Amino acid sequence: MSTTDVHAHRTTTPPADRATGGGAQVTAVRPPRISARGRAWRQRLVATLFLGPAVIYMVLFFGYPVIQNLIMGFQHYTITTFFTDEAPWAGWANYTEVLGSPLFRTALANTVIFTVGSILGQFVLGLGLALFFRRRFPLSGALRSLILLPWLIPLIVASAVWKWLLDTDSGALNRVLMGSGLIDSGIPWLSSTDLALFTVIVVNIWIGIPFNAVILHGGLQTIPQELYEAGSIDGTSRWQAFRHITWPMLRPVVSVVLVLGVVYTLKVLDIILGLTGGGPANATQTLATQAYQLSFATFDFGQGAAVSNILILISLLFAVIYLRLNRRPVDE
């Protein structure tokens, strides 16, 4: 076969076919454009899918019990109601009876003393530890971890340990004091009407110190070191540095710690029940323990709900304060 025949039998492929590998021409397909409205709708859908389970959980396990408790506070709700499903409407009778009770006034006064004493002790000691651990030294990390132990131990376990330590006859504390000759007989830390509330406050301070120390230590870490260096150049003392640098910079964190501490302390129940049960002679009775005893000791759930609703209102007040304090730095 001649060269001419060979060229004649060759198939010439068009340039377009060669670019696509031969055959039918393939055109690129662009994905459809999503409008701004569609993107916004998709973002809302994704946010809803993420928030949905949390919202459902909050409604079922927090919202529903709170609403039921509010309703129960206006009913004559007793243990027989669980069987008859009949709770007569009481209106404001439960609140009137509770507020007029001498025990409520005692519980309210004890709640104020318990809360103020606990918050002051926890904050002062927690701030001292936070300032101490700001310096790095050997085993500082291990010691910071040990400080968290009171916060990690279950409250009922902590109260049992403290009850053993503070027992009048066989408590370890009284034995140490008598062995050292400081006292002649055991001190009734938990059975004396004069000492019981003070003792419970001390135990609650011990439990709350880690929370204050950790949060305040984190706040101290955010203060620029350059401020202290500039102050040292100007000849400021340690007290002046704390007063003019540390405290103003730490004030937003302090506000949050104090408000959260108040909300937490108002509802403390385990420690008081484990140590004294509200006694002796109602010396450690608080609003939380009164609500518990009305509901589960005398089975007057209506009055117990009324006391707890009052406690919820007080907690909500401090929760609003916390939200405002937490939002202020962002707005400013």
How would you describe this structure to a colleague?
With 332 residues, this protein is mostly helical. It has a domain at 103-299: MetI-like (MetI-like fold, Orthogonal Bundle). Helices cover 70% and strands 0% of the residues. Residues 1-22 have low confidence and may be disordered. Belongs to the binding-protein-dependent transport system permease family.
Q: Give start-end ranges of low-pLDDT stretches.
A: 1-22
Structural class: mainly alpha
Termini distance?
92 Å
Shape: flat
CATH superfamily of the domain at 103-299: MetI-like
What is the residue-averaged pLDDT? 84
Radius of gyration from the alpha-carbon trace, in angstroms? 34 Å
CATH architectural grouping of the domain at 103-299: Orthogonal Bundle
* Tally of helical runs: 16
Percentage of residues in DSSP E strands:
under 5%
CATH class descriptor name of the domain at 103-299 = Mainly Alpha
Helix fraction, binned, reads over 70%
User: What is the fold named in CATH at topology level of the domain at 103-299?
Assistant: MetI-like fold
What letter string, H or E per element, gives the SSE order? Answer: HHHHHHHHHHHHHHHH
Largest sheet: none
The total beta strand count reads 0
